[in-house]
Design brief:
This is Reverse transcriptase domain-containing protein. It comes from Graphocephala atropunctata. The chain contains 8 helices and 11 strands. With about 250 residues, it is an alpha+beta fold. The chain folds into 2 domains: about 1-175, Alpha-Beta Plaits; about 190-245. A 5-stranded mixed β-sheet has the order 6-7-1-8-9, covered by helices on one side. The protein has a two-stranded antiparallel sheet with strand order 2-5. A two-stranded antiparallel ribbon has the order 3-4.
Length: about 250
Amino acid sequence: DKLEEGCIVNSLFLDFSKAFDCLSHNCLLQKLQTIGIVGKSAEWFQSYLINRKQQVELQYTSNNISQKYQSEPISIQRGVPQGSVLDPMLYLLLTNDHPAHLQDSCQTVMFADDTVVTLARKDKEQLLSSTEEAFTVTNEYCSSNHLVLNKSKTVQLGFTTKSKEANIMTQPGLESKKNTKHLGILIDSNLNWKPHIDQLCRKLSSGIYVIRRLSQVSNPEIARTAYFALLESHLRYGIATWGGGG
């Protein structure tokens, strides 16, 4: 819509280093209290996070004799238990106020630790200034919440239309690309789904080869299972987004 209105659009695809491992327990518990999680509920979260320990174990065999060494347990001050269904929710509870710090200067879309900040302005200089401001605010937010923004993997994508190639000024120090992958879908700066479809075709081609080989040495039921795992799962993923592209 903003492109149709004649605006220049720029998006920052933010990358956070070890997002789930860097969560500060104290900061997270304070955020939970701020949003109204108190009493027994707060105590439950505190018991879930606090007093966890980790240690390193080494085991090797020499002359048919196995030996095991363990380091001293160390208390964990950051991070959430890996593999828990609570990981994404706790991360979102910690970072849920990030868009409020950016106010109305941009649109922020968050899914777990994947965050995209999009800005639209009529003027290139104004867009560059707003992008720099949003990036500075995000850096300050990360510092105050003990998060680490990985600048080397943060990507900026300037959107254009097929009929109009805009020379978008990008934020210095950040990598600018023609397309980037977000939630498994390749997003193109020209709003063209061909790069994603081409990538999908290459992936499906290798799956078809595997199914052909399986059909020669196994029964149809195994080949059918392989089809759903190697082909249909990729075909259906995000099809509502890119399915109408050419």
